[in-house]
Specification:
heterodimer; A: 156 residues; alpha+beta; 5 helices; globular; B: 787 residues; 7-stranded mixed beta sheet; 29% helix; binds FE2/S2 (inorganic) cluster
């Protein structure tokens, strides 16, 4: 067991964890933060994407112990006081989700992109979302949503 | 309420009600469910395609930390019946026993052999390694044709054959005589590669038992909670009224969750045995082996026509890979397709035979479109080949044969009656959006210049049968269940409305669409409607969601139930207003007396009156709630035209989709945004079959594409922007005029893309490429042709 201290969506947690525990399982099973889903076991799908100290990572390829002393943001930490982010609103308005399983990962990956490139082209968006698979939407509306969010003044 | 006319909800591009939870992570996936004392289950699966289990010992697993119990097949054989097949398509079909956990023989890589239950998921997975199994290898059965040979090894030795069934459909003039008099005949063989559905949410099951009353709640990531409940009652012996099945949020299905899975039965058996709640969640790689696959067919197609392009007849011989066992509707998938090969074309002869074949691979079953994409692919590919043979433009050949707009209703050679359609309109619109002539000119130019990057144009026109299905037709097809759907509407005392539906969505937006339908009929605000689904206690009746049936059958049921509510409310309003029912008008939720607009009652007021029941007409039951069960009269038949332009690099074999246009006619549209979204997703899946995806096995029967790293699910850069549009020819077989849309894109896109690739390469002498048209296959085909 290793002791870790992690700040997740604004709350600090102190825990003893097995060294092999994946960050995604720590979030889901230990903290009950089930907004971040798991879609694969090979780090290919991106469903589990979260923000670790400001950069998007696949939380199934990070150990919980590696997050010690870090700050993690999940999809559940995006909206503040019921106020959705521009990206969340755009996903809703552009119908960028169907079953919604890929959506947390898409939102987190798109946030990362917009921070680096506030005004990406649709090609840049497609490229940036390469590691996030969606089986329902065919991606077009996701690309539209990210583009729409990039046109807003409000930060993503 | 104001008296201002309200804009109708049906037809409005409403953003979805569903989204609020999904974009904030407040979801309820099955794997999110946790309860006190929860145990985790892991399954040991056969590493071999075919073997006898000589010895199995699960006891070493019990010594591992956190392990509570371990079981082998024998433990389940005593308490679980065979997993069900509900579609025995012929009287003499071979129906092998299908144990949830193999007892003495394994028949595909992934067949379950043992189960471990532990305190956490890591411990359960670890303990699998301790289980000892001795396998005696048996020969795998992989090739569909060889499997039917005299000396082929048998998948089910007790059955004496790998032939599961032979199902013929011969109508019209005898095909042999048509072949004799035809001016042109063409024969082609097409391969429908196996596909792995890849719903983004892996399957998951949670069972919570209540020992004292013998009740069980089964949460499952399923498309079909109602069917699972019936079947699990049969398989486990748990009385149906003690079994509650809940499909919480479900992350996509595409047919792969239209299934009754062994893991559901195993979890129930384990929870019953241990008296503890149990969870199982598949990993993606496990799902590749254990969740059913789609497609898997060899199609021999022969078409007969005159030189002017008039089609005379079609012959189809199909070998369909069942895999190792018959799942819920495995045998029926190709039979659904049987009716669709003649597609939108008129012809006088049709000769179809399907042979179902057992192999030692993961069982197949429904995958997006289920039988219909395969059929459409074959006919649209061979139509293109025929056009080349006749020197006709492929669109022109289709035009010469399709059913004219004025000819509906039209009974096809396969025996279906298409109620409505307008193939001309959809095609003209698609051609205009696509800029067909300009692309043809560019193609000719590139060919002339000998450009290494060739342009190809592919067309596919299609229809499908949705709205499954009239129960009597299902009886004739030997499908065990009915095709009706249920809806009930509860108008609450405060005037808010609950719509209870028997359909079970997993991304299709039922909550939004059903709200729109009910709001229109009841004259209440869209926001005042909530939709209850996916729980056999809260929504006790239903036939669930698959085959684009939800809107056509389930939406129709909602419409009818809402009409019943209004009719009952009208009686109450007439009573309260002391008017005759016939003198009442009902507009935007308000009953008013003709000629005296001040005498009025809103439907919300009526609802409250029926709740208090202080002053109801004599003999009337309280509340204006109503229920309706709809059994459709006919299928529905969406149709459309898809056009695809590809650039194929003859040096690298790489195919890039340059433009993609679809015009779909799904009848009346309830929510254009949702329709567009479903078309996008459908096209993406169809392109994936054409270019990227295939479940590949090695000669020993191991799944080579066993992880998401090896099986290419297209990502955003792999797909283009689609141009989608619609024509609207309402269905005449339901009051909403709707036809269904979930599968349209998938059905149409695969042949459009492959036709385009072939169109690009034909001048180089390439005449066929097996799907998926990967760079390697394209490159080889080009090289071969150059030799
Ligand atoms: S679950 Fe992390 S990438 Fe798939
Ligand atoms: S919305 Fe279903 S996987 Fe993306």
């Amino acid at each position: 067991m290793t002791h870790i201290s992690v700040k997740v969506d604004g709350t600090t947690y102190e825990d003893d964890v097995e060294p092999r525990l994946l960050l995604v399982h720590y979030l889901r099973d230990r903290l009950g933060l089930t907004g971040t889903p798991i879609g694969c076991d090979t780090s290919n799908c991106g469903a589990c994407t979260v923000e670790l100290d400001g950069a998007s990572v696949k939380s199934c390829s990070v150990l919980a112990v590696q997050a010690d002393g870090s700050e993690v943001t999940t999809v559940q930490g995006l909206a503040h006081d019921g106020e959705l982010t521009a990206l969340q609103r755009a996903f809703h308005e552009k119908h960028a989700l169907q079953c919604g399983y890929c959506t947390p990962g898409m939102l987190m990956a798109a946030r990362d992109l917009l921070r680096e490139h506030p005004h990406p082209t649709s090609e840049e968006i497609r490229h940036a979302l390469e590691g996030n698979l969606c089986r329902c939407t065919g991606y077009q509306n996701i690309v539209r949503a990210v583009q729409a969010a990039s046109e807003e003044e409000v930060p993503a | 309420m104001t008296d201002q006319a309200v804009e109708p909800e049906v037809g409005r591009a409403r953003p979805r009600k569903e989204d609020a939870r999904l974009i904030t992570g407040q979801t309820n996936w099955t794997d999110n469910i946790s309860v006190n004392g929860l145990l985790h289950m892991a399954i040991l699966r056969s590493p071999m395609a075919h073997a006898r289990i000589e010895r199995i010992d699960v006891s070493p697993a019990l010594d591992r930390p956190g392990v509570i119990a371990a079981f082998s097949g024998g433990d389940f054989a005593e308490v679980l019946g065979s997993l069900p097949c509900a579609w025995p398509v012929t009287e003499d079909i071979v129906l092998p026993d299908h144990p949830a956990v193999a007892v003495d023989e394994v028949r595909y890589a992934g067949d379950p052999v043992a189960v471990v239950v532990a305190r956490d998921r890591y411990a359960a997975a670890d303990a699998l390694e301790a289980i000892e199994v001795d396998y005696e290898p048996l020969p795998p059965v992989l090739d569909l044709e060889a499997a039917l040979g005299q000396d082929a090894p048998l998948v089910h030795s007790g059955k004496g054959t790998n032939r599961c069934y032979v199902w013929p459909l011969k109508t019209g003039e005898d095909f042999d005589s048509v072949r004799q008099r035809a001016e042109v005949t063409l024969k082609r063989r097409y391969h429908q590669q196996r596909l792995i559905p890849n719903a983004m949410e892996p399957r998951a099951v949670v069972v919570t038992p209540l020992a004292a009353s013998g009740e069980y709640t089964l949460y499952s990531a399923t498309q079909i909670p109602h069917i699972v409940r019936v079947m699990m009652a049969v398989v486990t012996g748990i009385p149906e009224h003690k079994l509650r099945v809940i499909a919480p949020d479900v992350g996509g299905g595409f047919g792969s969750k239209l299934q009754v899975y062994g893991e559901e039965a195993i979890a129930l058996a384990v929870a019953r045995r241990l008296g503890r709640p149990v969870k199982w969640t598949e990993s993606r790689s496990e799902g590749y082996l254990a969740t059913h696959h789609g497609r898997g067919m060899i199609q021999d197609v022969e078409i007969a026509a005159n030189r002017d392009g008039t089609l005379l007849g079609l012959k189809v011989d199909l070998l369909a890979d069942m895999g190792a066992y018959l799942m819920l509707v495995t045998p029926g998938i190709p039979i659904l397709g049987a009716f669709m090969y003649p597609a939108i074309y008129k012809m006088g002869s049709y000769d179809f035979t399907c042979t179902g074949v057992f192999t030692t691979r993961t069982p197949t079953d429904a995958y997006r479109g289920a039988g219909r994409p395969e059929a459409t692919f074959a006919i649209e590919r061979v139509m293109d080949e025929l056009a080349v043979e006749l020197g006709l433009d492929p669109v022109e050949l289709r035009r010469r044969n399709w059913i004219g707009h004025e000819e509906f209703p039209y009974t096809t050679i396969a025996g279906l009656t298409y109620d409505s359609g307008n193939y001309e309109a959809a095609t003209e619109k698609a051609l205009a959006l696509f800029d067909y002539d300009k692309l043809r000119a560019e193609q000719a130019d590139r060919n002339h210049r000998g450009d290494t990057v060739r342009l190809g144009i592919g067309v596919s026109t299609y229809t499908e049968m949705c709205g499954l299905a009239p129960s009597r037709v299902l009886r004739d097809l030997r499908y065990a269940a009915g095709g009706w759907e249920a809806a009930s509407i509860r108008v609450l005392p405060t005037g808010k409305v609950e719509v209870v539906t028997g359909t079970s969505p997993h991304g299709q937006g039922h909550v939004t669409c059903w709200s729109q339908i009910a709001a229109d009929v009841l004259g209440v605000p869209f926001e005042d409607v909530e939709v209850v689904h996916g729980d056999t206690k809260a929504a006790p009746q239903g036939m669930d969601t698959y085959g684009s049936r939800s809107l056509v059958v389930g939406g129709t049921a909602v419409h009818h139930a809402a009409r019943k509510v209004v009719e009952k409310a009208r009686k109450v309003a007439a009573h309260l207003l002391e008017a005759s029912e016939n003198d009442l008008e009902f507009t935007d939720g308000v009953f008013s007396v003709k000629g005296s607009p001040d005498a009025r009652k809103t439907i919300q007021e009526v609802a409250f009156e029926t709740f208090s029941s202080h002053d109801l007409p004599d003999g009337m039951e309280p509340t204006i709630n109503a229920e309706h069960l709809t059994d459709p009269d006919n299928f529905s038949y969406p149709h459309g035209t898809h056009l695809c332009a590809v650039e194929v690099d003859t040096e690298t074999g790489q195919t890039r989709i340059r433009s993609y246009v679809s015009v779909d006619d799904v009848g009346r549209v309830v929510n254009p945004t949702i329709v567009e979204g479903q078309v996008h997703g459908g096209i993406a899946q169809g392109i994936a079959q054409a270019l990227y995806e295939e479940a590949v096995y090695d000669d020993d029967g191991n799944l080579v594409t066993g992880t998401m790293a090896d099986y290419l699910v297209p990502a955003a850069p792999d797909l283009p922007d689609f141009v989608t549009d619609r024509t609207e020819t309402p269905a005449t077989s339901n009051p909403l005029g709707v036809k269904g849309v979930g599968e349209a894109g998938t059905i149409a896109s695969t042949p459009a893309v492959v036709n385009a690739v072939m169109d690009a390469l034909r001048p180089l002498g390439v005449h066929d490429i097996r799907m998926p048209c990967t760079p390697e296959r394209v490159w080889r085909a080009v090289r071969e042709a150059r030799r």
